[in-house]
TrEMBL record:
<protein>
    <recommendedName>
        <fullName>non-reducing end alpha-L-arabinofuranosidase</fullName>
        <ecNumber>3.2.1.55</ecNumber>
    </recommendedName>
</protein>
<feature type="domain" description="Alpha-L-arabinofuranosidase C-terminal">
    <location>
        <begin position="436"/>
        <end position="624"/>
    </location>
</feature>
<keyword id="KW-0732">Signal</keyword>
<keyword id="KW-0378">Hydrolase</keyword>
<comment type="similarity">
    <text>Belongs to the glycosyl hydrolase 51 family.</text>
</comment>
<dbReference type="InterPro" id="IPR055235">
    <property type="entry name" value="ASD1_cat"/>
</dbReference>
<dbReference type="Pfam" id="PF22848">
    <property type="entry name" value="ASD1_dom"/>
</dbReference>
<dbReference type="InterPro" id="IPR013780">
    <property type="entry name" value="Glyco_hydro_b"/>
</dbReference>
<dbReference type="GO" id="GO:0046556">
    <property type="term" value="F:alpha-L-arabinofuranosidase activity"/>
</dbReference>
<keyword id="KW-0325">Glycoprotein</keyword>
<dbReference type="InterPro" id="IPR051563">
    <property type="entry name" value="Glycosyl_Hydrolase_51"/>
</dbReference>
<dbReference type="Pfam" id="PF06964">
    <property type="entry name" value="Alpha-L-AF_C"/>
</dbReference>
<dbReference type="InterPro" id="IPR017853">
    <property type="entry name" value="GH"/>
</dbReference>
<dbReference type="InterPro" id="IPR010720">
    <property type="entry name" value="Alpha-L-AF_C"/>
</dbReference>
<dbReference type="GO" id="GO:0046373">
    <property type="term" value="P:L-arabinose metabolic process"/>
</dbReference>
Length: 633
């Protein structure tokens, strides 16, 4: 029997308790949520023609030249097509990011920056399927002034759906033309924004109603070395001026997308803020603290050269919140958002540690607190929640009175099950916890990923009862990483998997979503024999009231191989409605997963339940997670 004490709230639930962690890992941004279909559109990858192939007849020497024009500082390279005789059938093919996902009947917008050196070259654009059959085409007659760069677009519709299409560009006529920023976008981007994001992927985020979105990572914030750290200023303004860098995840792991993994920053800081606003999430940017990844080079900026990094943080707040007369507020307005983004918190460093981190964080904290006292600071903590380094760091961060400590844990499902009481005895005063990256990692399938199976998801569901119960300490939580492409990933498990056409939520996604969409406003005790329900008899539970919806929400995990008859007594001042709803997640076995072909194998079911006075009975099937909602009258 469970006793729910709805008349004794113990803590407030933060309105942005359950959020998402975004990083460009596993083709999360380029090749993922950023809907650009052309790989290496500006020829700036290490090898300028990476992703491109010459097609057609043998080109005479000097037909295709990669030129490098220094005054185009951020995007110096472009391609010169030198058709001297105009006789040969010559073209270029782009392979996309593991191919291009194309949908029948949809409009595709091809655009290019060009400069006619000697007018006379016409472009024919073709989408082809894996057999080479044309599934969409357009033509393009440059009409720009000679020797002047111009952007032009041509749109066409696809005649067939194809998972791994490619794009051909054929050149006809005699002349010389320069090309750069060759781009192809589908019309069905999120909110139909030209050059925007993949709508199905954003929709999955929006459906979670996340309280915050942390961006842009993860380790990419740090970079392998400082030169390739994430610098937000290089990701805003016109996209043709955004300077790409190699992705820190380019050369990692067995199933890596390397060596062609770059950050082109078409999804830059403006777009991240816009995404946060679109899905109703608080933006939580994380910035480099003057330290490269400590798992790699551990390169440090000397303390007396930290100013530039601190200034980046101050300027970011101005970019997000400053009025249009400020330098960075003006840039935001020029990009289409004169109103502030209302940034409230900022992370300094990701998984940085040691006295070097504390030293740098102190400088950031002073500068940020002095200038923007209302901006909350999220400080980074370690990755080993059972280790001494973690304890040492947390003590130092608490002593500094940082607003949030960002704790990460990638552990076995067993660890999650045995740590549901982790925050029960945490210090209730001072710094709050941001559980910024966590995921249950089941044993790796031979030569494959560690899977997003039900054993991990149900263990996370149990662990999250502990976070919810301790909502006075834990104010934000997010699973990580967020996205992975089935043909290009280096880290698993991940919350959402995609191919070029489809996206699905894992069982872990379903768990996160059930928490995020049932977060309530106040924690209330749920007890069994007067004790917390936190692992005894393999049961885990937490409960909240939602004062806005006037309902009690109970979450309970049965981690037994047998069903458990749950009897609930509800202590509440007023009356309860006679019916409520019971949503549950379970699976045929602990190894069950969702896939592209079977995305709903582990997905929630909801049914009505009867409440007798202040009692209700629910059968908790083996290995199941339940969300029970009861209306208060
Ligand atoms: O989520 C994957 C990586 O795990 C993140 O980039 C990093 O912060 C952590 O080590």
């Amino acid at each position: 029997t469970f006793s729910i004490q709805a008349d004794k709230p113990t803590a407030k639930v933060s309105p942005n308790m359950w959020g998402v962690f975004f990083e460009d890992i596993n083709l999360g941004a380029d090749g993922g949520i950023y809907a650009e279909l052309i790989k290496n559109r500006s020829f700036e990858f290490a090898q300028p023609l990476m992703g491109w192939k010459k097609i057609g007849e043998t080109a005479p020497e000097g037909t295709f030249l990669v030129l490098n024009q220094k005054e185009k500082t951020n995007n110096p390279r472009f391609l010169r097509i030198n058709r001297l005789t105009g006789a040969e059938k010559l073209g270029l093919q782009n392979e996309g990011f593991r191919g291009m996902g194309i949908k029948q009947g949809l409009r595709y917008d091809f655009s290019v920056f060009y400069r006619q050196i000697k007018p006379g070259v016409k472009l024919h654009i073709e989408l082809v399927d894996t057999t080479g059959t044309i599934i969409g085409k357009g033509e393009f007659s440059p009409d720009g002034e000679q020797n002047t760069w111009k952007k032009q677009q041509v749109s066409f519709h696809a005649t067939q759906t194809e998972l791994k299409a490619k794009l051909n560009i054929w050149f006809e006529g005699k002349g010389i033309i320069d090309l750069d920023m060759i781009s192809l976008f589908p019309e069905d981007t999120w909110k139909k924004r030209p050059g925007g994001l993949r709508a199905d992927m954003v929709q999955l985020l929006a459906d979670m109603k996340p309280g915050f979105i942390r961006f842009p990572g993860g380790c990419i914030v740090e970079g392998r070395e400082l030169a390739t750290r994430f610098q937000w200023k290089k990701t805003v303004g016109p996209i043709e001026d955004r300077q790409l860098i190699i992705n820190r995840w380019n050369t990692e792991f067995k199933h890596r997308p390397a060596p062609d993994y770059y950050q082109t920053f078409g999804l830059g800081f403006f777009e991240y803020f816009q995404l946060a606003e679109d899905i109703g999430a608080e933006p939580l940017p994380i910035l480099n603290c003057g330290m490269a990844c400590q798992f790699n080079t551990a390169e440090l900026v000397p303390i007396d050269e930290l100013d530039e990094y601190v200034q980046d943080a101050l300027d970011l707040i101005e970019f997000a919140n400053g009025d249009v007369t400020t330098k960075w507020g003006k840039l935001r307005a020029s990009m289409g958002h004169p109103n502030p983004f209302n940034l409230k918190m900022l992370g300094v460093g990701n998984e940085n540690w040691g006295p070097q981190y504390i030293e740098r964080l102190e400088i950031f904290k002073k500068a940020l607190n002095d200038r923007y006292p209302n901006i909350k600071i999220v400080a980074s903590s370690g990755t080993d929640p059972d280790g001494e380094r973690f304890d040492f760091l947390n003590q130092r961060l608490r002593a500094m009175k940082v607003d949030f400590i960002d704790e990460h844990y990638y552990r076995s499902p067993e660890w999650f099950l045995s740590n549901t009481s982790r925050y029960d005895s945490y210090d209730r005063n001072g710094s709050k916890i941001f559980a910024g990256e966590y995921a249950g990692h089941p044993k790796q399938v031979e030569d494959g990923p560690s899977e997003n199976n039900w054993s991990a998801a149900i263990a996370e569901a149990a662990f999250l009862t502990g976070l919810e119960r301790n909502a006075d300490v834990v104010e934000m939580a997010s699973y990580a990483p967020l996205f992975a492409h089935v043909d290009g990933w280096q880290w698993a498990p991940d919350l959402i998997w995609v191919n070029n056409l489809h996206a699905y939520g894992t069982p872990n996604y379903q768990v996160q979503k059930l928490y995020a969409t049932n977060k309530g406003t106040d924690v209330i005790p749920i007890l069994s024999d007067g004790q917390l329900v936190s692992g005894r008899d393999s049961l885990y539970a937490s409960a909240v009231i939602d004062h806005n919806q006037k309902e009690i929400i109970v979450k309970i995990v049965n981690h037994n191989a047998q069903p458990v008859e749950g009897m609930f007594n509800i202590q509440v001042k007023g009356k309860l409605a006679s019916n409520g709803s019971h949503t549950f997640l379970t699976a045929t076995n602990l190894n069950a997963i969702n896939t592209i072909d079977q995305p709903d194998q582990v997905s929630p079911q909801t049914r009505p339940i009867a409440i007798e006075g202040k009692k209700l009975n629910i059968s908790l099937v083996p290995y199941s997670f339940h969300v029970v909602k009861i209306k208060m009258q």
